[in-house]
Amino acid sequence: MLNDRSSLLSLLETRRSAKPRELIGPGPTATELERMLTLAARTPDHGKLHPWRFVTIAEDRRDAFEVVLREALAEDDPCASVAKHQKEHEFAHYAGQLVVLVSAPLHDHKIPVWEQELSCGAAGMNLLHAAHALGYVAGWVTGWRAYSERVRSAFCAPGERIAGFIFIGHAGRELEERPRPELGDVVRAWEPPGPRSSP
Ligand SMILES: Cc1cc2nc3c(=O)[nH]c(=O)nc-3n(C[C@H](O)[C@H](O)[C@H](O)COP(=O)(O)O)c2cc1C
Predict the structure, then answer these.
(1) Ligand 1 atom closest to Cα of 177?
(2) Atom 20 in ligand 1: which residue has the minimum CA distance?
(3) CA of 30 relative to ligand 1 center, distance in Å
(4) Cβ-proximal residues to 72 (8 Å cutoff; 6+ apart), any chain
(5) Closest ligand 1 atom, residue 146 Cα
(6) Using a 6 Å cutoff on CB, does residue 16 contact ligand 1?
(7) Nearest to residue 102, comparing CAs of 76, 132, 124, 70?
(8) What is the dihedral of CA 26, 16, 163, 151, to 10 degrees?
(9) What DSSP string runs through 43-72?
(10) Contact 92/144 with Cβ under 8 angstroms?
(11) Shortest-distance atom of ligand 1 to CA 163
(12) Residue 147 CB–ligand 1 contact under 6 Å
């Protein structure tokens, strides 16, 4: 048990994202991907609403994904250069497995949408951890594509939105650690507020 715990702690301490464009294949096998998604779905979720979905894009759907991105780019920026369109080709074909995380909150529900969106973020984080635990590296990006109506509607129903594109593969080069916040900057011991001054 102690060993299990220390390896879990070490996983949490060593997980790092990779830039999706620097990932190399192969992505997870179908069995591994199913396991990652099962782990990711074990996420805190007020009201058991699972207000999120994982949309996997198979290798043979990458060309169609590129078409969506190029059409979205042409709409967004009708004068986009060939180089910009080439970037969409590259994005659509980054190595590894692509999972689109969709935030699917129930509007007009007693559980506030804010809480449902937090749960979606937690599901994304869980997927990153699951990928790391299975020996992969993941990278979560958004950018203009996540906010384009054309791209959104290719993945989402009305009222839903893209929370991110999560690529899962292997690191093409050694990952550098990034600076983490000083605990002093992000942790505070609460003090009760003083008496309110009268108007
Ligand atoms: C919702 C969300 C969107 C993100 N979008 C981008 C992005 O578009 N481009 C980018 O370089 N990093 C983006 N990031 C940051 C990276 O995914 C990653 O968190 C960062 O490189 C630090 O990685 P690590 O703390 O996981 O090692 C995003 C993170 C989150 C949570």
Answers:
(1) 27
(2) 17
(3) 25
(4) 145, 148, 150, 151
(5) 8
(6) yes
(7) 124
(8) -40
(9) ---TTS---EEEEEE-GGGHHHHHHHHHHH
(10) no
(11) 1
(12) no
Tokens of 45: 């979720």
Full pLDDT tens readout for the chain, 199 residues? 567 889 999 999 999 999 999 999 999 999 999 999 999 999 999 999 999 999 999 999 999 999 999 999 999 999 999 999 999 999 999 999 999 999 999 999 999 999 999 999 999 999 999 999 999 999 999 999 999 999 999 999 999 999 999 999 999 999 989 999 999 999 999 999 998 776 6
Which residue's C-alpha comes closest to atom 12 of ligand 1? 141
Distance 196 CA to ligand 1 centre (A): 40
Q: Is 118 exposed, middle or buried (0-12, 13-18, 19+ CB in 10 A)?
A: middle
Would the CB of 21 count as within 6 Å of ligand 1? no
Which DSSP string do the residues of 89-134 spell out, in sequence order? HHHHT-SSEEEEEEE-PPTTSSS-HHHHHHHHHHHHHHHHHHHHHT
The pTM assigned to this predicted structure is: 0.95
| C-alpha closest to that of 18 among 178, 195, 182, 191 | 178
Q: Residue 93 Cα, ligand 1 centroid: separation in angstroms? A: 19
SS3 38: helix
